[in-house]
Amino acid sequence: MNAPLDEMPLFVRQGAILPEYPVQSAVQFDCVSSLQFVIYGDPQEAAQSYVLYEDDGISFDHESGLYNELEVTYEATVDDGASVTYRYLQQGYLPAYRSRVFCFTRIRAVEQIAVEGFTCVTVEQLTSMSKGYAIDMDAGEVLVKLPADVMKARFVWRRQRS
């Protein structure tokens, strides 16, 4: 694949889980309303996981255990779907953001995906909801949103049969 000289290529392993915050000039987590995890591609045979470390970014409170370790796992299900599980390995810090968004990108048959237990809405509606999912056909992504105060969760997406 060719990369234009004026663009930085991004090489990401299929199944990778990467956290994203909005671009900002300084590390100030209190102005971030949502933490997004971007999950690239269809799940692999072996489960993929990522552990996010969080603290307030300004004090030494982490030395007293006031920090979080949030584990996110992405794995295939037997019926051509996927499951995502997240849980705290350590919880001692209350993040300022109000929601977590899981963005599935570069997956096959985006338009056929349904997320169990969640209502499908438009991308615009999802921004004002605390829980739901949306399919962004223009970007080729599925977005799943949960409130940040949910400490442990598992959700499954499946491909709908035509």
TrEMBL record:
Residues 35-100 form the DUF5110 domain. InterPro entries: DUF5110. It holds the Pfam family DUF5110. It comes from the Bacteria. This is DUF5110 domain-containing protein.
